[in-house]
């Protein structure tokens, strides 16, 4: 929302100093009271009548946006003083006879029951530090953070990287960074990320006209549209000619450092859109779809819950241990998966396939991955129209060998992140290569040595199969990996989920999320999504960075 100078200022709430927060809260309380009194100057409406809906709407003078922000703070701020005072301000407004908002939905994820996520105010000391850091940096504790915190080590690295990309010194101005985030998220119709960055874009002084459509943004940003499109959907088509076009367009040209910053931002938000849809992230409380000013309905949930697969039955089906319900069939599935891992390890120890056989298995897996697809009639999460933020709305993911088109295999031995991409990024955008490298390694190596109900399990084989399957879908091959393992370890429902989340995340449904690894904890499914996010980001980066390297040499 646009803040009015001298009326409602939120910045002070991000302070770690309790006195500074208290002063900011007093200022906010007074400003809200002044606005409220102009709408409802008469005597307060008794609470009984408030329940009948006889309250004045708060739409005037931007008050509804302010009240929605206070609702978010009362539920999602890591500082208890801010939560309590925000709630008190809302109660005061209601006593004046003005409708106050209430949250829609059921926690940070549509796929994970709220009681199984970390509740704000009940987190341990380490998580509280992460929450406070996130809030101090962004001015909010978003739903992505509240789901990622299942894995605090990764979350810390993710927040540090995102903070550097968006707010620290770098080649691109701040409003460009948020606009590029909007462009990237819009490619996957991710209204959740678009809404967040529209607000951030305006907050750092971005021109509201740019939000009317990409054609209203500077030509320099419009020129980035083609690269955005290919990176998101068909990164294997990027050539050094595309890079040359961006770097040599006279007055609208990009510098190499700016382009690296833009490429990292685009890949970051493409993959974050995958996480958003893959984990069913709910709209933020203060954003569109996150709250309502209407009285609760008799059924206590709205029609959007039903269309999104929520039927209010979580309490009935959730197991007392706070994990996904476990059936006998599910237990058999996890036992079978562990047995396959054991057998594959024994085969590895006994014999090694020839290089020719390994290459054949890769080509077979790459070919088979083209026929893994989600059914087209699946309902995806509703999203407001975000197509104005990008061009060519019909351009989407296409398997490489469709229509007789052949794309050469990308051999990691010829161009890898470790040996080539890392140093290129670090040279042109200092420290970012290091931050990305750390994030990739944490996601790839993260383990608690558990699988569902089993402990002391080496999951490295399974994690590598997931990572390499994603890269295989992008045509990327590791010469030392036996791709025959993928079919042994990843069943069809899991492959459908992986391909959907990585390639067409906007089509992900709760049914897909529920249908794979039914016996595993929600935290383990979030862990899978971290692997999908980072493997996808690295795949996109490899194609873009290889093209940049070829342009430079």
UniProtKB/TrEMBL annotation:
Coiled coil: none annotated. GO terms for molecular function: L-leucine binding; oxidoreductase activity, acting on peroxide as acceptor. PANTHER family: P53 REGULATED PA26 NUCLEAR PROTEIN SESTRIN, SESTRIN-1. Pfam families: PA26. It catalyses: a hydroperoxide + L-cysteinyl-[protein] = S-hydroxy-L-cysteinyl-[protein] + an alcohol. It is found in: Cytoplasm. It comes from the Eukaryota. This is SESN1 protein. InterPro entries: AhpD-like, Sestrin. One of its GO terms (biological process) is positive regulation of macroautophagy. Keywords: Cytoplasm, Oxidoreductase. One of its GO terms (cellular component) is nucleus. Belongs to the sestrin family. It comes from Caloenas nicobarica.
């Amino acid at each position: 929302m646009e803040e009015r100078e001298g009326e409602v200022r939120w910045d002070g709430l991000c302070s770690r100093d309790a006195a500074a927060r208290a002063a900011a809260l007093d200022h906010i309380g007074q400003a809200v009271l002044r606005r409220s009194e102009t709408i409802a100057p008469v005597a307060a409406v008794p609470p009984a009548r408030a329940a009948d809906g006889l309250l004045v709407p708060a739409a005037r003078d931007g008050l509804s946006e302010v009240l929605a922000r206070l609702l978010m703070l009362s539920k999602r701020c890591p500082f208890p003083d801010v939560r309590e005072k925000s709630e008190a301000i809302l109660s005061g407004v209601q006593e004046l006879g003005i409708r106050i908002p209430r949250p829609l939905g059921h926690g940070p994820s549509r796929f994970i029951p709220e009681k199984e996520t970390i509740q704000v105010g009940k987190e341990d000391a380490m998580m509280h530090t992460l929450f406070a850091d996130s809030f101090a940096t962004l001015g909010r504790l978003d739903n992505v953070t509240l789901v990622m915190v299942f894995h605090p080590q990764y979350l810390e690295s993710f927040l540090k990287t995102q903070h550097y990309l968006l707010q620290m010194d770098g080649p691109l101005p701040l409003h460009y960074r948020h606009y590029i985030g909007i462009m990237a998220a819009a490619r996957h119709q991710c209204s959740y990320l678009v809404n967040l960055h529209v607000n951030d874009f305006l907050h750092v002084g971005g021109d509201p006209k740019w939000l009317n459509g990409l054609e209203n943004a500077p030509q320099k940003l419009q020129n980035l549209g083609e690269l955005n499109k290919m990176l998101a959907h068909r990164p294997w088509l990027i050539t050094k000619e595309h890079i040359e076009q961006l770097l040599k367009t006279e007055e609208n040209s990009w510098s190499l450092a700016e382009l690296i910053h833009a490429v990292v931002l685009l890949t970051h938000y493409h993959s974050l859109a995958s996480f958003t849809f893959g984990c069913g992230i709910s709209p933020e409380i203060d954003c569109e779809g996150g709250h309502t000013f209407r009285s609760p309905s008799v059924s206590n949930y709205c029609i959007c819950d039903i269309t999104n697969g929520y039927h209010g039955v979580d309490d009935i089906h959730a197991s007392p241990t706070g994990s996904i319900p476990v059936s006998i069939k599910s237990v058999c599935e996890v036992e079978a998966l562990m047995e396959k891992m054991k057998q594959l390890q024994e085969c590895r120890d006994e014999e090694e396939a020839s290089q020719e056989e390994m290459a054949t298995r890769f080509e077979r897996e790459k070919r088979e991955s083209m026929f893994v697809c989600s059914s087209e009639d699946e309902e995806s999460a509703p999203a407001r129209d975000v197509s104005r933020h990008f061009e060519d709305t019909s351009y989407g993911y296409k398997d490489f060998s469709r229509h007789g088109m052949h794309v050469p295999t990308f051999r990691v031995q010829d161009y890898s992140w470790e040996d080539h991409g890392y140093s290129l990024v670090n040279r042109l955008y200092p420290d970012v290569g290091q931050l990305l490298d750390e994030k990739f390694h944490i996601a790839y190596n993260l383990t608690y040595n558990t699988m569902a109900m089993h402990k002391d399990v080496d999951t490295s084989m399974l994690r590598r199969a997931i990572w390499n399957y994603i890269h295989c879908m992008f045509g990327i091959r590791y010469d030392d990996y036996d791709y025959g393992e993928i079919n042994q370890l990843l069943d069809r429902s899991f492959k459908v989920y992986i391909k959907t989340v990585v390639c067409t995340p906007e089509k992900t449904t709760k049914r897909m999320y529920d249908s794979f690894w039914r016996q595993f904890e929600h935290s383990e499914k979030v862990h899978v999504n971290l692997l999908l996010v980072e493997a996808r980001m690295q795949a996109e980066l490899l194609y873009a960075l290889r093209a940049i390297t070829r342009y430079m040499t």
